[in-house]
Specification:
alpha/beta; globular; disordered N terminus; six-stranded parallel β-sheet; single chain; 18% strand
Amino acid sequence: MEDDANTDTPLAVFIADRIEPRLGMERALHDLLRTLQDPTELILICGPTPSAHEIGVATSLGMRPGWLGRLRAIPQIRQRLISADPSSRIVVVGIWAYVPSAIASIGTKQRLVLWEHSLLPWRRRHELRVSLAALALKLLSSQMDTVVSVSKASRSAVRHLLGEKKRTLVIPNITPAQDHPKSQRTDRTDNLHALVAVGTLNRRKNWSIAIRALSLLDSRYTLTIYGDGPMRAQLEHLSRKLSVEDRVFFMGHVENAAAMIGKFSLLIHPSFAETYGYVLFEAADLGVPVVAMDMPVMNEFIPYYVPGSLSAGDPESFAEAIECANRQRDNRDSDARLRRSSDFSPEAIKEAWHRVLHSEERPK
């Protein structure tokens, strides 16, 4: 293996939809490629080609975003798979890129590693595109030998869909505890009733329960929401209906909204489903506890890695969870920080991925 690492032969070829904008999956991909250090190649279906100095060899097929672009990319992906070195592992990033890659691999000797983020029960039930992608994944599952999930919930969903025959394991994204300057942290005794939320204003993020919970809380509580989306007008109407419009502040899209979290007392995260939830870790690093729904993936991280409280799915319970978290004045939780530093460090994630990429176990 050491000799291979010193050649230009890629340890792995990653196939992804895109790597910009650097949101959840794209951020995870960027961080992993920078961490692996071994020779890797990145093939992007759409979007611009990133700088080589950041992540090594990368090319874009130049397709338009969406399913039409993915399907048109199949011949080029197939050509890349056929010409790939047999010793290289093919890692497909997400179910969106997996479908065209699996079709392209039919009839070749290549078997794929699926790096999965999005397959969760709520999304399969309520988002048609995820339901259809899951069906396609099941039909094309013979083309994979391993599934790497970023959470236990995702692995469970994959096993429920594909059964126990596929090799499945969990490798979280790189999210070690970070030390922020004191200037970014708020003394919570100065602003105990200032709540903050960050995310797209859509159905999955479930902002209505946060606004309904606010109407049940002391009038000193305020909620500032960073993000925009299709449900903004509906949520603004709800805040007026509940007479809390003077306590809910819609800030719209803000670059690096996570940097604002440290100015507030609590982060509110009522999402029905979260592929990973980087914002939870960003809040923890700033000493801000999180109140979230008791749903996958949030209940894997809170409170073991991220200080805070979990709530049932009604406004009364969510309001109670907010008050509970606010009563716990010391939420920095050194034990949780140590666990984040250990389990999600670049070194730990790199070692786990090396076991996958160097593995000779390639189930039929």
